[in-house]
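Sorry to interrupt, but I need a hand with the structure work. Please put the record directly below this note.
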Amino acid sequence: MKSLFLLTLALAPAALLAQPQRCVLQNGVLNGAYVFTLTGTAGSPVWGTITGPVATMGIYVFDGAGNLQGPIATIATANPPVNVTPPNVVPGTYTVNRDCTGNLTLNFSPAPNAHYNLVVSPDGRQITMISTDKGDVLLSTATRLDH
C-alpha cells in the first residue's frame, strides 16, 4: 500500500503538467484582427458553382463576445477559374469552450452558411479550423495581428 501511495505521489506532478491548458476567457480569448488562410477542396453548396481546389486568404475581426466579421478576402480556385475580392463584409459567429475547442459559422446569406470546428491556442494568438460542411475538405489557420 505504501508503494502505491509513493507511486501516486511521484506521478501526480506529471499528470498535472499533462492537463491541457484552458481558454478561461472562452469567447473573449479571440479579440482583434486575424490574418487567415484556407486551402483544400470545395464541394459543398456553400461554394455554389465553385468546385475543386480552392485557396482563400483575408482578415477576420473577432469582438471577444462571439461575433466576427470578414472584411477582406481573396478567393482563388481552378474550377471555374475565379480570383475575387468581394466588396462586402461577411459576418459570423463563434464559440470557444473552456478546453479551447469550439465552432465558427460564416453567414453567406442568402447562400448557405459555412461551418467550422476550431482549436484555439490558450493565449488566443493562433486558430486552426476545419470545415464541417459535407462535400468540403478545407483546413484554415488564423494568426492574430499585433495591436
Q: What stands out?
A: The chain is about 10% helix and 50% strand. The mean pLDDT is 85. The two ends are 56 Å apart (CA to CA).
